[in-house]
Structures are given as structure tokens and as C-alpha cells.
Amino acid sequence: MSDRNEMLSNDINNAYIAILKEELRPAMGCTEPIAIAYAAAKAREVLGALPDRLVLEVSGNIIKNVKSVVVPHTGGLRGIPAAAAVGTVAGDADAELEVISRVAQAQIAETAAYLDSTPIAVHCVDTPHIFDIQITAFHGEDSAFVRIVDYHTNLVCIRRNGETLLEKECVTREDGLIGRSCLSVEGIVAFADTVNLGNVQEVLERQIAYNMDIAEEGLRGNYGANIGSTILLGRESDINCKMRAWAAAASDARMNGCEKPVVINSGSGNQGITASVPVIVYARETGKSHEELLRALCVSNLVTTHLKTGIGRLSAYCGAVSAGVGAGAGIAYLKGGRFETIAHTVVNAMAVTSGIICDGAKASCAAKIAASVDAGLLGLAMFESGNQFFGGDGIVKKGVENTIATVGKLARIGMEQTDKEIIHLMMEA
């Protein structure tokens, strides 16, 4: 039995490492328009020519998350046609979520000209997949079709002139990803305590470098509503304000066209920012060692992924909430807390902010990030002061895993109609 447990432990350890490597990927720009750009670049590659017409059929959640966000390397353009145009004109499909990271200055003008001269039709389609991008590119009599389903790089169908080049069935929402059923808060804490950091250091170091770089840019520049710098005004010495401000500033920049990459979590740059930046700021401000920071980032990222697994990649439930909970868990770990502290932090934080809706990617995401980080910090402070929410308090259940499962069900099933109404209202504007 002990050998079996040891083998199981090794299996879980390896799965957690693989999940971190799979989730913590670099991306340039908001990931939904980038997924469109990726699909468009792939369609052009398959077509073998610059398309003279594009037809996009997308799920409502794609429209919601692309409508209002600035697409990098477009000169400030927003929306689905802009994302498709820059991917078509200047995208490198091999780069996947960094598809438009190497756009030349001349290609920005080419993108604008392409938009002006090329018919780009966008249709919202009824599909069982919340995440669904279908693009057909035409050049004369030739055509290419590309479809991405369920997550940002999941190509499920490629056709050229009706001939199928790739086709695969998607059985579940996360088909093709490493299984997430092994995740638990207790397991995450044990993993953070014992993992050989050499196995995860590269992805975590990249997250630190990328996400802090864009946070600094957000505080320096003039992006969107400048939530980060507003939070910091007159409160530069307040560590809690710094954690919220730096995370918000990174989103300020990212949502408003900053041409710097971020390391994402669960398909979202805002979630990657929220799960990492407050933890990094806290570690630096309190003199924690680099090893302590890396282990805390294991906690924050994996807790975020754990919560998002039940919720889904796109939902009416704001993703920053999950990442704010993850950040609170990571900070709890840095302060010496282990399973009991982190479990209560997670439950308390989820109870505070689980009503925040997602109404698409845009400037106000930065404010929701700040609120979510604050909830994570409040959840920890509650436990430290001997206070907590109990099973039966609203959606809170007895035990952290039961509460996480309940929140997932709330977001995935309970908020399904809310999501549809949000999309309807956004499309009216």
C-alpha cells in the first residue's frame, strides 16, 4: 500500500507540474481576440494567399470578450474584424497565442487598409460550445476553413476547398488538456512544499518577468481608466494598495492595447496577472526569499486553475474572482499559512466576490481585478482574526472542496441564462 501511495504521489506531482506548464503560457493581447487572430493566420496559411473575403461565425461569449478590447499592433482598433484582419495580414500561426507579437510598423497600416478594402462578415452562431470560432477565408474560387473550440489553441477542423485536412471530436469542454480532477487545495499545498523547483522554475520566472513588466508599464503610461495609478494615489506605502494597484495597472495596459506579452492562467491574461502580481509584490515588499515566492506562485496559480476547472474558460462569472482567490491563497502561503489557513482563505474570499459578473474584456476589468485581490486579502485577514464564513452561509458549503464545486456549478449552470442576457445587452449597444 505504501508503494502505491508513493506512486500516486509521484503521479500527482507530475500532473501538477504538467498543468503549470500547460496553463502558464505567454500571450500577446487579450486572449479571445488573439484566438481570432490565430484562426485567421491559420486560415491564410492553409489558403496560401491573402484572402479577399472573410466570414467569421463565433459564439456569443467570443463577441462579448472581443467587442470592447483594443487589439495590439492595430493602431488602437477594437473588435472581431480588427483581430481577424491583423491575424490575416501580419500573423504567424506557428506562434499561437503570440501570433501578432512580431508585427512590423508597416503592417499596422496594411491592416487598416485591409479592413477598409476587404469584406469581413461576423455572425453569432448557436453552438453547444461556449468557446467557438469558425473562420472561412476566400481567395477567388479557393477557400479555407478553420475552427477553434473550447479553448484558445484547440484546432478541431481545417479544410481547404472542401477537403478535410484536420478533424477531431471534442468530447468534453477540456478535451485535449491534462486532466484536472487530481487538483485539490490540500494537494496543492503539499505540492508547493515539496516540488523540485527546477521542474517549474522556467515557467514561473517567465510569469514574474512578463507580468511585472506590463504592470510597470501600466503604472507609467496612460491606459484606459488608469485604475492602477488611481488606487495608488496618496497610498504608495500601503502594501495592500500596492498589491491591488500593480495587478490593476497590468490589466489597464493589457486591455488597452499595450504591446507587451503576459503569462496567462486558464486561458486568460487577466487571470494570469491577478494570480501572480499581488503575490510577487507582497514577497518583494516583505523580503521573502525567491524560493518562497516560487512556491507561493505554485499555490496561487494552481488554486486559480482548480477554481476555473469547474467554472469553465468563459462564463458569466468573472474570472478575476478565481484568480483573486488564488492570490489570497498564495499570500497566505507566504505568511506561513498551510492547508487550514489557505482553505479558509479560499472559502472566505469566494463567499465575498462570487457575484461579480463578466461583461467582456475591457478597461473595467482592471477595477474588477482590484476588487478580487481585495477579497482574497480580506478572506485571509478574516481567518487570521478568528473569523470565517460557515457552511450554510449562502453558497458556502462545509469543506473547501465542496464550496469550490458549488461555485463551479453556480457559474457553469446557474449563470448560463445570465450570460446570454449579458451578451444580448452588449450586442444592443
Q: What does it look like?
A:
- The protein is built from 16 helices and 8 strands.
- It is an alpha+beta fold.
- It has 2 domains: 27-167, 60s Ribosomal Protein L30, Chain: A (2-Layer Sandwich); 185-428, no CATH class.
- The strands form 2 sheets. Strands 3-2-4-5-6-7 form a 6-stranded mixed beta sheet. It has a two-stranded antiparallel ribbon with strand order 1-8.
- The N and C termini lie far apart (61 Å).
- Residues 1-8 have low confidence and may be disordered.
Please supply descriptive tags for the structure shown above.
429 residues, alpha+beta, 60s Ribosomal Protein L30, Chain: A, six-stranded mixed β-sheet, two-stranded antiparallel sheet, 16 helices, 8 strands, globular, disordered N terminus
Oligomer: single chain
Structural class computed from helices and strand pairing = alpha+beta
What is the averaged pLDDT score? 92
- Bulk shape: globular
Number of helices: 16
Number of strands: 8
Amino- and carboxy-terminal Cα gap:
61 Å
List the secondary-structure elements in sequence, H or E: HEHEHHHEEEEEHHHHEHHHHHHH
Give the total of domains.
2
Q: Quick summary of this structure?
A:
This protein has helices spanning 2-23, 31-47, 60-66, 80-90, 105-117, 185-194, 201-220, 227-232, 239-255, 269-285, 290-311, 319-334, 339-353, 365-384, 400-414, 416-428; strands at 26-28, 53-58, 120-124, 132-139, 142-149, 155-160, 163-167, 261-263.
